[in-house]
Amino acid sequence: MSTHSLSTLHVVSRVAASLLGGYVFVWGFVTLGIALLMSAGMPYDEATTTLYLLAFILFLVMFCWAFAAASLVRVWAVLGGGGLLMTGLAWLLIPRLL
Amino acid sequence: MLQSFRHSMTWVHTWFGLALGFVLMVCFFFGSLSVYDREIDRWAIPASRFEPQPMPSFDRMLEPAFRRIQLTKEAREEAQTRNEEPLPDTLPLHEWGAYTTHRDPVLSMWSGFELTRPKDPDNDHVYGVMTLDPRTGQELSEDKLKIGSQFFYPMHYELHIHWLGLGYWIVGLAALIMLVALVSGVVMHRKVFREFFTFRPKKQTQRSALDLHNLTGVVALPFHFMFALSGLIVFAGIYFPVGETMMKPLAKAHQKLEASRTGLPEEAAGIPAPLASVDAMVAEAQRRWAARGMAGEVGFLGIHHVGDANATVSVYRAGTDRVTLTGEGIHFKGPTGEVIREDDPKTAAAGINDFVTGLHLQHFRHWLLRVLYFVGGISGCVCIATGFIFFVGKRKRQHAATGSQGARIVDALAVTTVTGMLIATATMLVGNRLLPEDLPLRGVWEERIFWSAWGLAMAHAFWRTAAVAQARIAPAWREQCWAVAGLAGLAAVLNWVTTGDHLFKTIADGYWPVAGVDLVLLASAALAIVAARKLRLREQAGAPAAKEDAPAPLETAHA
Q1: How many CB pairs under 8 A join A and B?
Q2: pLDDT at residue B230 above 60?
Q3: Do B128 and B76 touch, CB atoms closer than 8 A?
């Protein structure tokens, strides 16, 4: 279990990516998922419940992947970047659903 | 991150498990006690030691009781901070609620009042509560803390840390890490199936601790996984509050649409109107449930827009006969008593969500499943505690050689969260029996006793773990086991002395809520004595090479 080859900064960044990046990614997935299901005609409460049921399993998977992936840059790009991208898309969809 | 997936997962398991394990210990222990929260309430409030009662008559008993509910001074002061102008002496009524379960002799009631000029229109209510004896219609003092349902139960999901709702977030993070620890734990052991059948109690401590860690982790893996996951799903709206933030316009629009679709008015009409007989509405609801072949006890009675022409009465079924959250709510017009509607059949998503939530909250009537829930939760505690012991056992010799305090600090925190938590719990029960019955704010004192005892146990743990820094076994474990034994035994004795309800009586009467708490207290005391004696032997054996104490502190986790 040697982490000697890793700098403290790398470990801190990895942990931050797993938790903060993971949270942003799941937030984006939940909001975009609700918006897409509503676009497909599902009522708000059912869409929300569906995404809440999936949210924590997804968080678990992304969290583990954040430590399994070799490239830390890719982890931040996928979790942080992907999360922001999905949140942005959801943001654009919301006014169309009202 | 590391050279292989398995190495990365081992790193995650060790360090996240260590950091959040202390929180998980609290969640699993008080979650296990919450399985018997109502029974602990009976033990703690002797005046409520009688059989569970059905929902009493609204017209004769509940309505006058609801009208007596006042705001506490604290609730009024808190509400004042949310209102633009000084609050009048009597606030306009908004809603009434009464809740009971098949395990509750007393009824929980609340009355919601409206703020006159709220600063935030979405946060414009304030609540007063009452606990009613349904046999007499008299209220019980709110100064008497329901230790099970008001203290141990919230402890397991929010740690009584109210600032910014931080407690929920810490527990949520711990629950996520529990899921991660289960997945990473399976990944790091390639021979999961064989380890499942491996337990070597006579081997070196570190070996037997690890065996027990694997055994309790794997044997109850589906249980642990489902509980951590369902706990997160129950509070998903707190962890991902999309409806209050980004998607608020959608949530609001949906609420409006639902109000018009269901015919249950969102707002009061502003025209005063009396209530029709609620007892008649309850009878009609029970007739409709019976027609569907369902058990017909009322679990929750809610009245909205009390005293207004738009008043509605909602009657929900108590969920005793299935795992999923039930309700099958039937809604009536308050002033006329005519049925507005029955709840829709559940959609697929809501059905799964209610099942997962119901699985966690266990409203069903099934004593054996309840025992298994308790055992499953305690096995989680054993799993976490053995994890700590393995962590310390593996590192203490190396740390002793290099002069590091790491293993000692972890051992001290482990003592604090394993035996220290038991000491705090037992001391609170002792305090509950010794404080004067009519002491003002009695419950607040009980909570102070709990936290003080835990603080003292922590100080003792840090003081008496110095031996770990020399790679020896810390006397703190043994000493705290004796404290647990003494306090748990004392609590059971004090219950006898102060109430006369000793075990021969409660068992003979078949009054299991109190008999059960006493039996678990005595069993915990006995286990703690066994543990303390074994620890003694191993300390005397004194070989710094082997810390032969593992099963001992674990057994105490059964309390």
Answers
A1: 99
A2: yes
A3: no
Which of B357, B228, B247, B353 shows the shortest CA–CA distance to A52?
Answer: B353
Q: Which of B341, B287, B340 is nearest to B317 (CA)?
A: B287
Q: Which of A14, A19, A39, A64 should one mutate to test binding to chain B, selecting the residue with the greatest count of B CBs within 10 A? A: A64
Nearest Cβ partner for B184 among A34, A52, A64 = A64
Q: Smallest Cβ distance to A52: which of B176, B236, B251?
A: B236
The Cα–Cα gap between B407 and B393 comes to 8
Among all residues of chain B, which has the CA nearest to that of A96? B250
| pLDDT of the residue at A3 | 52
Report the pLDDT value the prediction gives residue B151, as an integer from 0 to 100.
98
B542 band by pLDDT with thresholds 50, 70 and 90: low
Q: What is the pLDDT of residues B282-317, one digit of tens each?
A: 999 999 999 998 878 999 999 999 999 999 999 999
Token pair recorded at residue B140: 């019980």
Q: Do B8 and A68 touch (CB under 8 A)?
A: yes
Q: Do B8 and A67 touch (CB under 8 A)?
A: yes
Which of B98-107, B388-397, B404-413, B542-551 has the least mean pLDDT?
A: B542-551
**Chain A residue at shortest CA distance from B226:** A57
- Estimate the share of chain A in helix, then strand, then coil, as percent rounded to the nearest 5: 85, 0, 15
Contact B247 A64 (CB under 8 A): no
Q: How many angstroms separate the CA atoms of B61 and B52, rounded?
A: 17
Residue of B7, B393, B9 whose CA lies nearest to B182: B9
**Residue B384's pLDDT is what?**
97
Average pLDDT over residues B431-450: 96
* Distance in Å from the first CA to the final CA of chain B: 40
Minimum-distance CB partner of A64 among B180, B243, B249: B180
How many helices and strands (H and E) does chain A possess? 5, 0
B93-99: strand order across its sheet: B138-140, B125-133, B107-114, B93-99, B298-304, B312-317, B330-333, B339-342
B27-72 tens-digit pLDDT: 999 999 999 999 999 999 999 999 999 999 999 999 999 999 999 9
B253 contacts in A (CB within 8 Å)? 44, 98
Tens-place pLDDT, residues B508-532: 999 999 999 999 999 999 999 999 9
Q: Output DSSP code: residue B346.
A: P
* Residue B347 CA from chain centroid, whole number: 28
Burial readout B505-520 (b: 16 or more C-beta within 10 A, e: otherwise): ebeeeebebbbbbbeb
Residues of chain A with pLDDT under 50: 1-2
Contact B1 A69 (CB under 8 A): yes
Residue of A nearest to B172 (CA): A56
Pairing, β B125-133 against β B138-140: antiparallel
The rounded radius of gyration (Å) of the Cα atoms in chain A is: 16
3-state helix, strand, coil in chain B (%, to 5): 60, 10, 30
Mean of pLDDT values over B10-14: 95
Q: What pLDDT score does B266 carry?
A: 86
> A40 touching B, CB under 8 A?
no
The residue whose two tokens read 């719990």 is B425
Length of chain A: 98
